[in-house]
Write a structure and sequence with these properties.
The chain is an alpha/beta fold. Helices cover 37% and strands 16% of the residues. The protein has 9 helices and 10 strands. The strands form 3 sheets. A 5-stranded parallel sheet has the order 5-4-3-10-9. Strand 6, helix 4 and strand 7 form a beta-alpha-beta unit. The protein is globular and about 80 Å long. It starts with a strand and ends in a 22-residue tail after the last helix. 42% of the residues are buried.
Length: 260
């Protein structure tokens, strides 16, 4: 069976989904279930997973016994902020070590600050975390993050929440070709075709939040994304036909025609 393996654990789904921006935890649950995702991200600074005992907890809607939680550092702009946030997450989730690191550069574009990201990744890896890291689509930075010990590299397709799709497939292809750990497209996916293209390029998985939560029908979009990721992966494994410019090739053989 073709499974996604991250930090030594195998998953059947190659779609990772966020848990923010839904109208309530019930919609979150229904969308996640429809997506088939087994890994869910949670913004520790924005979502209650036990920090406030008086409020509903995401842990009740999406039990950790069923899903692998991926605490992330959304909203962090320095390495120190990100490190503190993930250490808190480890305490809240009983020693959980698999995390998503993102250190943003500014609040307008939400583009990653790769200098602070590298700094935080080095410290977190040494501190025993299994770090999946959000970064730019720079192949050099991606390789440096892998060399630091990150368990997955997560380059953006386009800006967070933009829905612009994959703007630079060539850089993604270089990263895929050079990186040995899983490459997970993160940020910018807008619709099912974007997810399929990412998988056809050879990405190991796709992570998304707004593309599902921001749809008019999040549950239906989650179903579409599930199918798109599966179809894109199968197309990659099948190996597409070569592209031929100005070379006609009939679908049916021309030899042995009746009457010839």
């Amino acid at each position: 069976m073709d499974q996604l393996v991250i930090a030594g654990k195998a998953y059947s789904s190659r779609l990772l989904v966020g848990t923010g921006k839904y109208k309530d935890f019930d919609e979150t649950r229904r969308a996640v279930e429809a997506s088939g995702a087994e890994i869910v991200t949670v913004a520790i600074r924005r979502t209650n997973i036990g920090q406030d005992a008086s409020q509903p907890s995401l842990l009740d809607a999406l039990p950790p016994s069923k899903y692998t939680y991926l605490p992330n550092t959304a909203g962090c702009y320095t390495a120190d902020e990100a490190i503190r946030t993930l250490r808190l997450a480890r305490e809240l989730l009983d020693g959980h070590s698999l995390v998503k690191l993102e250190v943003l550069g500014d609040p307008h574009s939400l583009y990653p600050n790769v200098v602070e990201t590298l700094k935080a990744a080095e410290i977190l890896v040494k501190d025993g975390f299994q770090v999946m890291v959000y970064t730019s689509d720079d192949p050099i930075i991606a390789k440096q993050l892998e060399d630091l010990g990150c368990v997955a590299i997560m380059p953006l397709a386009s800006l967070i929440g933009s829905g612009m799709g994959i703007l630079n497939p060539w850089n993604l292809q270089i990263i895929i070709d050079r990186i040995q750990v899983p490459v997970v497209v993160d940020a910018g996916v807008g619709t099912a075709s974007d997810a399929a293209i990412a998988m056809e390029l050879g990405c190991d998985a796709v992570l998304m939040n707004t593309a599902i939560a921001g749809a008019q029908n999040p549950v239906l979009m989650a179903q579409a994304m599930k199918k798109a990721v599966e179809a894109g992966r199968e197309a990659f494994l099948a190996g597409r036909m070569p592209k031929k410019i100005y070379t006609a090739s009939p679908s049916s053989p021309t030899s042995g025609l009746i009457g010839s």
